[in-house]
Amino acid sequence: MITTNDFKNGLTIQDNGNLFRVVEFQHVKPGKGSAFVRSKLKNLRTGALLEKTWRAGEKVETAHIENREMQYLYADGQTHVFMDTETYEQLEIQEAQIEDELKFMLENMMVKVITFGAEVIGVELPKTVELVVTETEPGIKGDTASGGTKPATMETGLVVNVPFFINAGDKLVVNTDGGEYMSRA
């Protein structure tokens, strides 16, 4: 158990049987009345954001989650198989749980699988991934490198806005937080 005075970004807590990660928080000390903590929490099971206000010093239960480095092996219908590279133990995760992350994942990629006890919460991706462009409109001579953008479909099916000079077959570095083009690989 910790108090709300110990909140920090990235902290995982339990509240009413739900798991939350603290996205942001703010200690507020009004001129009249007692201090409180305003927080923005992300539900780790549903992905929903929740804003909650706590009394200063209120006790909160921490959740001990585990991040295990695993390799994404393959998809088997609606199930995706991951393997621990040290113990060779395999773990199956349903597609609905990692739907957003699948847009960035290739076979044999290393990811962190987040677990709470025996329950799999989700997958944490690296900050950037390298993906190959499978389809985009060809660049036309005279298009500027700093001008506009065009959509490009990556090998995982992800659509990213890229500069005009990018062509099919180019390998790009893509940010996994927002799915934006970073640079050529």
Automatic annotation (TrEMBL):
One of its GO terms (biological process) is peptide biosynthetic process. Pathway: Protein biosynthesis; polypeptide chain elongation. SUPFAM superfamilies: Nucleic acid-binding proteins, Translation proteins SH3-like domain. Residues 67-121 form the Translation elongation factor P/YeiP central domain. Keywords: Cytoplasm, Elongation factor, Protein biosynthesis. HAMAP family: EF_P (MF_00141). This is Elongation factor P. The gene is efp.
